[in-house]
Amino acid sequence: AAGEFGHMSIDPLGELCRCGNRGCLELYASFKGPIEQASRRLGRKMGIEEVVALAQAGDVGCLRLIEDTAEVAGRGLGIIGAAINPGLIVIGGRLALAGDMLLNPLEQSFNKHTLVKRDDVSAASRTKFVASRFSANDACMGAVGLVLRHHGRRS
Questions:
Q1: Which residues, at least 6 apart from 145, have a Cβ–Cβ distance to it below 8 Å?
Q2: Coil, strand, or helix at residue 26?
């Protein structure tokens, strides 16, 4: 289970997760809850793409849902950053379609919650955040990249 950071418990009294633990980061940093909130607020079933499109069109409620998710994810990534100090964090999945609406508050939250503060290191040494270009199959493409690097086909 190494690397399953989404299943770190950040609230031991929180909701029950599918893994059997309570209060896992995934419950708060995924977009499942915010989609349900948007669906209730707008009175129809919503998907990530619709929520992102509404936020881009100026719907402040949908924008807030994205920003709130980014805040929690940034806090969780800050904890992870204290342990492994990643040079790059790639945000995958369909929520990556939110682009800077997600990445900017995510990076701000990460910087607030990580051990090494943004002003303490050079720009080249800071953790960088990017959205995956392969939102439909990002995990598969990452695995392909690891195989290619392992076999000397990619640096």
A1: 154
A2: helix
Q: What is the pLDDT of residue 71?
A: 95
Q: Which tokens go with 111?
A: 């910087």
Cα gap 94→64, rounded to integer Å = 17
Alpha carbon distance 66, 46 (integer Å) = 14
> What is the tens place of the pLDDT at every residue in 21-44?
999 998 988 888 889 999 999 999
Adjacent-strand bridge partners of 91: 131
Q: Return the bridge partners of 89, or none.
A: 129
- Cα end-to-end span (Å), the chain: 26
C-alpha span between 59 and 41 (Å, rounded)? 12
Q: Token pair of 13, please? A: 């009294």
Alpha helices of the chain — where are they, by DSSP H?
A: 25-29, 32-42, 48-56, 60-84, 100-113, 138-150
CA pair distance 86, 102, nearest whole angstrom: 19
| pLDDT tens by residue, 107-153 | 999 999 887 766 666 767 788 999 887 666 667 777 787 888 888 77
Token reading at 89: 């964090």
